[in-house]
Amino acid sequence: RDSVAWLANYLTSLDKTCLMVISHDPGFLNIVCTDIIQYSSQKTLDYYEGNFDAFRQARHISSDEEAEALLMGRDLDDPLDQEEKRPEEEASASGGVTAGLLDKASKISFPIPGTLKGHSSGKPIMELKNVYFAYNEQDGPMILNDISCKIFMNSRLGIIGANGAGKSTLLNLLCGELVPSPSPEGKQLGEVTKHRNLRLAYIAQQHMFHLSEFMNCTPRVYIQQRYKNGWDEALQRRLIEPENEEEAKMRKELAAKYGKYGNQVEDIVGRVVRGNEVLYEVQWANLPDQKQNTFENLAKLKMMGVTTLAKAYDERQAGQAA
């Protein structure tokens, strides 16, 4: 709740700024909002003066259950709950759906995960060690403070907590979409590790993050396109390509310091295990001769800011082995 309170205080301090917020948290809406706009099931915008409590009073909403249902998108004036609509009614409401989407014979079967090659049952498949995270490392609050956890092969975990507690942030760290921040003292950087042969699947809270380039596809085509080579192509791009110009510049500077002859890592093309250490075969930029490839450990790749390239290779190998 600390992060939600911080955000609410910050937004209310902007006295010369117009804000439009979307939230499922009535307490947050009460603090921040001076007016409420309801988007109804009739596709109209209904305006109400005051905060969320004033809106409840104007709509004669007495119970918290009714208020929660409204916040979650169900219009109380709609005589037919959206969850009770028949498939053909949903198809009609969406502007028409091809028969293939309603064909019960069209099913996608997902295989039951098998054993994880090279994994000992007594060891975790994913682990967080002393992880801190802040979206603004200079001024913002710490969303996660010194978090440690272990996830084992037979785990079925649910993450619960209040809005803003850091649930999505924790998942994004586990999935590799975010990286840990330094500790408040700047002396410690937590670790997020997973078994090199583990295949990880997740659905982002903001679905457009994944679906933006596939909006005109059916679910079947979407899966075929995204996993056409046996692994997640979208994840490969996020892991391999620099996130922004700043990261691209950082990679270039680190390569000049630690790369072979000052060159950047072009690709990871192989992997071997020697003793207890995993080494990755690096193909260097501007050195096309395979004899110039070298085997580097994760510590060296971390110094060069390209551990995500090793993760991308691990994902491809796990996909081929599945």
UniProtKB/TrEMBL annotation:
Species: Zooxanthella nutricula
Residue span(s) of domain Chromo: 263-322
Molecular function (Gene Ontology), one example: ATP hydrolysis activity
Alphabetized UniProt keyword annotations: Cytoplasm, Repeat
A Pfam family: ABC_tran
Keyword Cytoplasm: yes
UniProt-recorded name of the protein: Chromo domain-containing protein
Entry-linked InterPro entries: ABC_transporter-like_ATP-bd, ABCF, Chromo-like_dom_sf, Chromo/chromo_shadow_dom, eEF3_chromodomain-like_sf, P-loop_NTPase
